[in-house]
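Before the break, one more example. Copy the sequence into your notebook; we will annotate it together after we see the structure.
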Amino acid sequence: MMELELTEAQRATRDTARRFARERLERVGVEIDRTHQFPTAAVAELGALGMLGVFIPEEYGGAGLDNVSYMLVVEELSVECASTGVIVSAHSSLGSWPILGTGTEEQKQRFLPRMATGEWLGCFALTEPQAGSDAAGQKTRAVRDGDSYIINGTKNFITNGSEAGIAIVFAMTDADKGNHGISAFIVETSTPGFAVTRIEEKMGINGSHSAQLAFSDMRVPRENLLTNEGEGFKVAMKTLDGGRIGIAAQAIGIARASLEASLKYSQERQAFGRPIASNQAIQWKLADMAVEIDAARLLALQAASLKDAGKPYTKQSAMAKLFAAETAMKAATEAVQIHGGYGYTKEFKVERYFRDAKITEIYEGTSEIQRLVISSQVLMNR
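Here is what the structure looks like once it is written out:
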């Protein structure tokens, strides 16, 4: 059973994130969607507030809180700016956690303090041009050379890739072994041979840059290997389990923003002499949105609580991500419909919510992959 009542620390963290989002990110979200600029100043302020190291223990420079607190932070930020929400999610779940969860003590001491403050942003370099859901299809290679590995290859769609100081890079050390031949490395992006070769033009979350990374004879010291050779796939899967909680939280934030905008507009907009909120057709849309948002949050809280308790949460995080992403897309679609013609214009934010919501059904594992994960877990437990 999960505890539904938030602790004092969790409430305080949520309220701090909510206040920051309302005071700083409302304007930032509009501006960076227009300019496609990374929100450098806002991210630095989040680092100073401790929001980039929420679940990193205090001994490594973090806030020493839990995954429930982290989930609440990402949700609140994403209500005002989904780009900032996913920047924090990718940095925390995908960049920092692999070191915290699978790294050596020396690696934790060396990297986490600078990541907790935001001095170094983190990214997760798994996807390739020809290897998305199929991680074993990667072409990036790491060849042992004395006390180093020489890495060559290309990664695609890497969130934070163009701003990161640290990249968790996956490469084949034994191509004949498929998934069991993948290894994971902690790479400082200042390493010679590391290059950002492209930043994608996207439909939404325009302030969060999705980069193509290239590695050309990049020499990485052996002490930067995470766990052991051939265990990179396990690192990736464990990381993505937790990362799905962050994306679920982002999706919940987008859905909440869609509902809040719809509530406001439907009570102000007059048609046939009365607010459109008095029409049952609109009321039912609002009701469905409210129910589904609360259900999505409960699923995400369950997954985060299980992770905090050290219990298995693979199925629960996949459920949370799947349901929250589809809730965000549905809520944003209904918000545009409720706003009518205005919903299709940039005068109102709901058209941005619609564009931002779609990616939540794709990254960190598509909705189809989530259904595979869930069904395999359900069948395994029969």
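The longest strand covers residues 148-159. Strands lie at 122-125, 141-145, 148-159, 166-172, 182-188, 194-199, 210-221, 225-226, 270-271, 274-275. Try to locate both features in your own notes.
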